[in-house]
Predict the 3D structure of the following.
Amino acid sequence: MRVMDKILIIEDDPGIRTVLRLALKGAGYSSILEADRGDEGLELARREQPALVLLDLMLPGLDGLSVCREIRRCEPIAATPVIMLTAKSAESDVVAGLELGADDYVTKPFSKAILLARVKAALRRPGPIEGPVRTLGGLVLDHATRTVAIDGAPLALTRGEFDLLNLLSAHPGRVYTRPQIIAQVQGDDKAVTDRTVDTMLVGLRRKLGEWAAHIETIRGVGYRLVP
């Protein structure tokens, strides 16, 4: 059974593990698990079923991307939020992790305040919102009728705009890369490209008005809907 404040740190640098452990405990998270190898961390995740995993990318035994992939393949822990810790600045590494199912990332050296904010956001994030109607802060998205309204006022969205908003709102706080967005909003009538996604975002934000502030651009990576 998953303990809601149980956090697993998979990091091979003992100094960084100590910083993470002290920051988490100082924020009130009492159950902290640690592993310094990817294979050991994956086994610990399977056995302990933590509420969240802080995962370094460069690990001995099994690299972080492989660990993330295996977590998403293991049914009991497949929905566990994963925040990547990476010293790499290359966007390709971040994108690769997000496409494998990581929920967010923090680049080293990191601010404790930012890290704790990301942890808090990931832990309070709801799972997939089932049912025909999704309500988020005044916005109502109806799957059955493919309609969207804000504070009761209907919005005239294109199919692509609706699909994009539907994707982002399914997991508030989760970062979606451009390839993930393209795969989800691909239509039968024409190919969706990076430029198409940009165009849809511009149109969607314009129609959402002030509510568009909930959509955050992660430079060089993708987009997310801020809860």
